[in-house]
């Protein structure tokens, strides 16, 4: 698991903010405890397919997934009860970040694009 801020245009639009907060979790570690989800697909900034899961009652985005069923999912942090206890260990898609936003924080990983591998970001979370 890890916690990061994504500055891609989709996350900015979806969150109506400068970035979206997400937690990367294993698909087997996610459990929907009530209701059912609906899905739609789109193309991510990097050109890959992105599957979007949302609540059909309120429209809240719950997570993003790739077409690889074994890959971790990107759980939208706004769907959690209390995210104020977490600080992101990384900022991704910073080439799309708003210029007024100060990202330089000690120990925070900065990625201009989508990282090829989240290993460094996962390790940073584990070692925080």
Explain this structure to me?
The protein has one domain (2-126): glutathione-dependent formaldehyde- activating enzyme (gfa) (Alpha-Beta Complex). The protein contains 2 helices and 8 strands, in the order βαβββββββα. It has helices at 9-15, 119-126, and strands at 2-6, 20-25, 38-43, 49-54, 61-65, 73-76, 90-92, 109-110. The protein has an 8-stranded mixed β-sheet with strand order 3-4-5-6-2-1-7-8. Strand 4 and strand 5 (61-65) form a beta hairpin.
Write the layout of secondary structure elements.
Blueprint: E1 2-6, H1 9-15, E2 20-25, E3 38-43, E4 49-54, E5 61-65, E6 73-76, E7 90-92, E8 109-110, H2 119-126
Parallel strand pairs: 1-7, 7-8
Antiparallel strand pairs: 1-2, 2-6, 3-4, 4-5, 5-6
What is the H level of CATH, i.e. the homologous superfamily?
A: glutathione-dependent formaldehyde- activating enzyme (gfa)
Q: What are the secondary-structure elements, in order, as H or E?
A: EHEEEEEEEH
Specify the helix fraction band: 10-25%
Give the termini separation.
Answer: 12 Å
Short overview:
The protein is of the alpha+beta class and 128 residues long. It has helices at residues 9-15, 119-126, and strands at residues 2-6, 20-25, 38-43, 49-54, 61-65, 73-76, 90-92, 109-110. The protein has one domain (2-126): glutathione-dependent formaldehyde- activating enzyme (gfa).
